[in-house]
């Protein structure tokens, strides 16, 4: 089946015209950095004054980018996506937890997503961020090889116990789970947690996926080393490949603290790292007749990389429908990629954030800011939505 990311009739077939019009206005607003700034300040202010703005948020940005406030709430979106064979990856998007109570709540929420994945074909796997379970300060210290004091040691053990409970639960239900990548100054500790988890659970199949951020230098070198070492130790390597979400934060921290930025100097270098890592994995990825070594998830909204992956899979002789790759995008964005991919028979899923409105506000503002700063993405979303609205009008 042919694949055309410009085919808006497929891209938006799950959307009513009313919902497309709402999306159009929303993207118009968030493409304006001034309005996003004002909106952010007003929201914070309104929450402080306890003004009833939940309804407004629920009907606008929340509806665009989130599944619901709970797993149960999100089921409607999950089944709507699954009607078109687009999976949903439930992402508990509450950020900035700092105490044991909040960490334990997050653990319970993630456990619930794993259970849901087991019982729902529309939820192919689970995901979590380590900072939702372990204090970020401890992850930073661990990554810098600094010693913990007694209390920190104790808190670290509690955090690791939470992570292990999640990984072992996912393994017991046979539900694959991804570990998101975060800021570079805490990533070493996250990589070690993921590596240990893979060594334990990825024996017969890939249960645990770690994330590689290709905006960082030398990722292909590290990837090759890790895959080789996993092979020698007899376990499989699960990779989610992304470009990376903390570009501005990374670059400004390295400037402020006067160290060489770990980030590539240009988008061109990031794209090359991403495509090189992707091509390397696609070359060695398990063929049906050989033993499994790697499993791949491509977390990207980049059309060129997605097309390149498909071309390479074909060239490598994969039978259509059996390609060992899952393509993933964020809910509310790049439906032209997700829906056209799934329509053409490729495994596709959306990250579906959920959580109480007030708690997911930081996630929503990051999405709005990302859509403001990444001009190309907003422009693409808007122009595709407008094309589809025009197309529908012309056939009425
Ligand atoms: C399913 C999914 C899961 C994700 N999981 C994670 C995760 O765990 N951790 C995480 O950090 N991110 C994650 N992301 C976000 C991802 O890293 C990107 O920020 C986002 O997807 C945009 O990149 P892109 O590949 O879609 O393509 P594009 O829009 O083509 O690329 C934009 C990206 O290129 C890079 N870039 C842009 N300008 C420059 C520059 N001047 N120099 C160097 N690099 C530059 C940045 O990484 C930027 O985000 C995820 C995204 C998806 C879709």
Give a quick rundown of the structure:
This protein has 17 helices and eight strands. By secondary structure, the protein is α/β, with parallel strands linked by helices. It has an eight-stranded parallel beta sheet with strand order 1-8-7-6-5-4-3-2.
Structure report:
With 396 residues, the protein is an alpha/beta fold. It has a single domain (8-395), classed as TIM Barrel (Alpha-Beta Barrel), CATH 3.20.20.220. Strands 1-8-7-6-5-4-3-2 form an eight-stranded parallel β-sheet. It is 58% helix and 11% strand. The chain is built from 17 helices and eight strands. α14 (303-315) links the parallel β6 and β7. The structure holds flavin-adenine dinucleotide (FAD). Flavin-adenine dinucleotide is lined by residues 180-181, 211, 213, 215, 242-247, 263-264, 266-267, 270, 299-302, 328-330, 351, 374, 377. The site of flavin-adenine dinucleotide has 26 residues, from β4, α13 and β7.
């Amino acid at each position: 089946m042919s694949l055309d990311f410009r085919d808006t009739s497929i891209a938006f077939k799950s959307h009513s015209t009313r919902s497309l019009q709402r999306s159009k206005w929303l993207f118009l607003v968030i493409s304006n950095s001034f309005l996003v700034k004002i909106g952010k300040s007003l929201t914070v202010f309104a929450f402080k004054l306890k003004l009833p703005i939940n309804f407004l948020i629920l009907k606008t940005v929340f509806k665009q980018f989130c599944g619901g406030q709970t797993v149960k709430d999100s089921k409607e979106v999950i089944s709507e996506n699954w009607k078109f064979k687009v999976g949903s990856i439930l992402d508990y998007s509450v950020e900035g937890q700092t105490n044991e109570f909040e960490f334990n709540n997050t653990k319970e929420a993630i456990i619930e997503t794993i259970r849901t994945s087991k019982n729902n074909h529309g939820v192919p796997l689970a995901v979590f961020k380590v900072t939702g379970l372990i204090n970020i300060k401890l992850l930073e210290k661990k990554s810098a090889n600094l010693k913990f004091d007694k209390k920190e040691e104790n808190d670290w053990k509690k955090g690791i116990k939470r992570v292990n409970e999640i990984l072992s639960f996912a393994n017991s239900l046979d539900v694959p789970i991804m570990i998101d990548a975060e800021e570079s100054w805490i990533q070493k500790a996250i990589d070690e947690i993921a590596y240990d988890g893979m060594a334990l659970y990825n024996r017969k199949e890939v249960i645990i996926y770690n994330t590689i951020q290709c905006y960082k230098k030398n990722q292909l070198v590290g990837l090759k080393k890790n895959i080789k070492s996993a092979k020698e130790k007899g376990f499989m390597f699960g990779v989610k490949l992304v470009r990376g979400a903390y570009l501005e934060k990374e670059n400004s921290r390295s400037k402020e603290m006067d160290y060489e930025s770990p980030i590539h100097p240009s988008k061109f270098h990031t794209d090359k790292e991403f495509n090189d890592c992707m091509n390397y994995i696609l070359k060695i990825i398990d063929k049906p007749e050989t033993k499994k070594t790697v499993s791949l998830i491509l977390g990207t909204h980049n059309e060129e990389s997605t097309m390149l992956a498909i071309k390479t899979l074909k060239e490598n002789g994969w039978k259509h429908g059996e390609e060992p790759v899952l393509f993933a995008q964020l809910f509310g964005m790049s439906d032209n990629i997700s829906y056209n991919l799934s329509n053409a028979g490729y495994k596709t899923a959306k990250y579906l954030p959920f959580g109480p409105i007030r708690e997911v506000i930081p996630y929503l503002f990051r999405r709005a800011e990302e859509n403001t700063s990444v001009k190309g993405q907003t422009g693409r979303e808007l122009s595709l939505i407008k094309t589809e609205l025009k197309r529908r009008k012309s056939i009425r």
